[in-house]
Amino acid sequence: MLGYAFMGKAHSNAFRKIGYMTWPPPLTPRLVAIAGRNEEAVSEAARRYGFERWTKQWEDLVADPEIGLFDNLGPNDVHAAPTIAAAESGKHVVCEKPLGRDADESYEIWSRVAATGVKHMCAFNYRFVPAVRLAREMIDAGELGELRHFRGRYLQDWGDTTEEVWRFERGAAGSGALGDLAAHVVDLARYLVGEIEAIGGFLRTFVPGREVDDAVEATVEFEGGAVGTIEATRLALGRRNAFQWEINGTQGSLYFDMERLNELQVFRADGDRARGFKTVLVSEADHPFWEHWWPPGHIIGWGDTFVHELHHFLAAIAGTTEVAPHGATFEDGYRAAEVCDAIVRSGERERRERIDYRTLTS
Length: 362
Description:
By secondary structure, the protein is of the alpha/beta class. It is built from 10 helices and 14 strands.
């Protein structure tokens, strides 16, 4: 594992839980080694999370014959080289989002890794929220009818700070709320509604002297005919982690809020006199992922989405499933980056942008 902070904690916790909560696991995770730049912090992380050893050099992980899965959780500027090197050494790879700092870098990662034949996944973990997966199943079953509208927004409120954070550095992060938050909205829009073919939008930086954007606003058109909006900001006071989306179809609607992640709001146009949304507590035995957890009504948390995500990837390595369509492959990571780049171009050119996705043969 490369990275020991926020995501290092989340993924380490998930790997450990997989070994006993998803019994029997598709593969039993063994935490071999963790890498990070700060010797004191990475050595403490190794002890805390249960890794056998630690190093300051990611190259040591790539060269280690005992490691079969490389999990890259470092800052965005160290996504490309370590991930590509690990794949070219024959290791399966997970990389945090955004896959790269822009579409060109993301395409390079995807194309180089795909050429090796290893399994790869871009860690868009919100695909693995039970309520989100239930929504996908309902949409696939036609329960919403023809999809017409998508409205997605990811709101946080920690951006008014003077602390030195790598996410505010253009060289390290590539972008601000765009790659950090809007990329999640783009991926969920693609996962639930379909491919995005055109977009219009702009970025805004409010904090003086900041190198990256604080906020994103965009309108989108989907290949299937639906239209939508995407919003992301780190400056929405009072919204701690409010990833909210709504989908409207000809026969029903769905609404979700990450701050109430066990719930899905469902509306059906069935003529009921008690017209309105109903709240579904997604915790029944036949709901997605619930075979791993508790009796109905006993809810799970944000960190458990990583259990589902990494369990899925281990199953793909074991050959019992494929990463796609439910897991985000590096192609999905690239396509999300292409949409994000189109928002940047739209703002610069003050016009709507059609999106041309590259393929591995182009």
